[in-house]
Amino acid sequence: MRTVIFLSILFVTCQSDDFISFEKLQENSTDGQTIFYYNNKKFSGKVYKKSNDKISLEFELKDGRYNGFFKEFYPGGLIKKEVNYENGILQGYENNYFENGVMSETVNYNNGKFHGSRFVYWENGIVKEKNTFNNGVLVGNTTYYYSNGKIRKEIKFDSQGKKDGEWIDYDAEGNKIKVEYFKSGIKLD
Questions:
Q1: Neighbours of 69 (CB within 10 A)
Q2: Which of 2, 64, 87, 106 is deepest in the core (most CB within 10 A)?
Q3: If phi over 0 gives left and psi between -120 and 50 gives alpha, with beta otherwise, what is residue 94?
Q4: Contact 106, 122 (CB under 8 A)
């Protein structure tokens, strides 16, 4: 019983440490970046925003810019989005969730651009789409799936993001219904 009480106190304490209400900040947006101020100074610290008495956002700022974690929540309290920033730029994994708690998308960022694997999911948890990016450019194989998990389409891109190789469409039973060929963005006959 003491452990449960201690953990509850610890959780409540951690939730309120060093957080400031979003409403106390002023925003200034220039060149596509938002800078947050508190008492006319660029703010550094943790921020929360409430909606209907529930946390809807939590994020960290350094010198007025997003830096560290950024979390958005559904009205019921479940996580909607979690991402990381470094000096106002997306860096690392972004995870998005459906309201039922199932992941809807995960993607990696490098200096604000998609980089590496990206997965999109159906609400039932089955992969809907998977692809790869190299510094914001869609490269390699991309595969789309039906909600039952069967492949719907397979496409390929070269290192510059141009259509390349065999592009195949499948019906819901897995039969090929269309095949096209590309080389460096040009459709071959």
A1: 14
A2: 64
A3: beta
A4: no
Q: What's the rounded mean pLDDT across residues 141-165?
A: 97
Domains and CATH numbers, the chain: 14-188 (3.90.930)
Q: Which of 97, 93, 21 is nearest to 57 (CA)?
A: 21
User: Is the per-residue pLDDT at 12 higher than 80?
Assistant: no
Give residue-wise pLDDT tens across range 57-77: 999 999 999 999 999 999 999
Confidence of residue 32 (pLDDT cuts 50, 70, 90): confident
**pLDDT value at residue 179:** 97
